[in-house]
Write a structure and sequence with these properties.
- The protein is mainly α.
- Helices cover about 75% and strands about 0% of the residues.
- It has two domains: about 100 residues; about 30 residues.
Amino acid sequence: MDEKKHYRHRLSDEVANYIKDYAVINGLPYHSSSEALEKIIREHMKINKEVFSLEYITKTVTENVTQSVQVALQKSISREINKVRLGTNNIDRNTQVLIELVQGHMQMQNLEHIITTDIMKPEFLMAVENLIQERITKQKQRKDT
């Protein structure tokens, strides 16, 4: 059993009455306020320990969930960026092929000069631009739905 020591404390009437009421409610001897005070303090220590444990668990869980969400978000963003990069590479390849084809055709025709679209825009070019715009619009509609 723990060795008990004697201490003197000054308490307000309110606190002293609380200790006496606590003793009565918990079946402790009415005259033994030291037992009631000791029980109150032990309960208080237990509650503080439980609150600390709960706060620690809450903090740890919050940190782990935050880290998991960040990792998932980074993976998602990485996948989307990779899709954009692959699409851009494909467009770049196709553009280079078209440039080579046009240049080869111009050399075969021995063309030294060309008329640019700001001077004259042919009807077939406007038709192709409209077709491309329609494709882009349809692709956006499919992606949105």
